[in-house]
Amino acid sequence: METESPHEEFKVKRKRSLQSPDLASPISHCICVTSPEGKTIINPRYEILSTIYDQPASPSRILLVKDTETDAILILKQLLKCKILSHAQNISALREIEIHQSIRHLNIVTFYDSGETEDAYNLLLEYLPGYLYFTDRIEVNNKPFNLKPDGGVQKLKSFSYDVIQGLEYLHSQGIIHLDLKPGNLLLYTDVDEDEYPLVKICDFGLSRKVDETGYALIEKKCGTDKYVPPEVNDGARISPAADMWSLGLLLHNLAVGYTPHAMKWTPGQPIPFHKRHWPKYEGTGLKEFIEACLRLKPEERITSRDALLHPWLSFN
To answer: Which residues form the Protein kinase domain (predicted)?
Structure first.
């Protein structure tokens, strides 16, 4: 269930996007079929166009494919069995499929189908042309939002709202994403001229479901170093508050091009907001929101539900 926000401007901006055909009328897909020889294979209906990601150390291979029946462009994510080297990694692959296929939300990359072949677990997903926007902007070109004349405040607010909406939905379903970072945020750009692009969360490879206590056990420390919460360690029990920590660091990075760690910040200490980098955000509530995300104790962090009501998400 989506939390109702008092900031009606965002609802107006998303009114038409909420009726996106991608969510309203999903195409029927079948990623795997049985060959004449009786083997399960990738459906020939999907033509491979290019390889987007394939690294030696990663079991994931990302392919751009075309549905030859509808001309739709899609993503085929393969979890290669030859690179899944342990029982724990195999459980993780199956968990990713189980979690992603169970969720459906405007701010989550759409899952269409999955299937297992001899050499891989296969996921058929929505393709978003703006998949490199945040990675290129921050990690490649170092163009944070504060370089814009107006600080990109309204656009950053809109993007923040999208991510928080996605997180609030995940958390309401008992899911912790556990790897929130620029590379796992994609842009849906097929919107009207007066709308900002829509941000969608992807990649549930590290995600966990909480138990009846509201916590999830992680066997090993995981995540992307720059965004890993302090409580995420071997054998730790974590809560959705872990995602809020990563969100705070993510917004800090988007706003000024670096995380507080670059200023020799230690978690639990005051965040060093250097004045020369933050004047465009004075009075917006962004700094206060980041502080609320980066409380050292997870139980003291702002929740995704409360985040939707924070002054940072106001256009005023």
So the answer is: 46-313
Nearest CA to 236 among 223, 226, 247, 253? Answer: 223
Distance between CA 310 and CA 104 in Å, rounded? 25
Q: With a cut of 50, which residues of the chain have pLDDT below it?
A: 1-6, 8, 10-21, 24-25
Strand order in the sheet with 60-67: 46-54, 60-67, 73-80, 120-126, 111-116
Length of the chain: 316
Establish whether 162 is a catalytic residue. Answer: no
- Assess contact for 137 and 51: CB atoms under 8 A: no
Query: What's the predicted TM-score (pTM) here?
Result: 0.90
Residue 148 amino acid letter: K
Q: What is the pLDDT of residue 23?
A: 53
- Residue 265 CA: distances (Å) to CA of 41, 154, 292: 51, 28, 16
Phi-psi region of 267 (alpha: psi -120 to 50; beta: other; left: phi over 0): beta
* 33 and 199 Cβ atoms separated by less than 8 Å: no
CB neighbour list of residue 15: distance below 8 Å, 6 or more residues apart? none
Read off the pLDDT of residues 277-302 as tens digits, 9 standing for 90 and up.
Answer: 999 999 999 999 999 999 999 999 99
* 26-126: CATH class: alpha beta
pLDDT of residue 26: 52
| Residues 129-313, CATH architecture | Orthogonal Bundle (1.10)
Of the listed 179, 203, 211, 234, which one is catalytic?
Answer: 179
- Say if CB 63 and CB 76 are below 8 A apart: yes
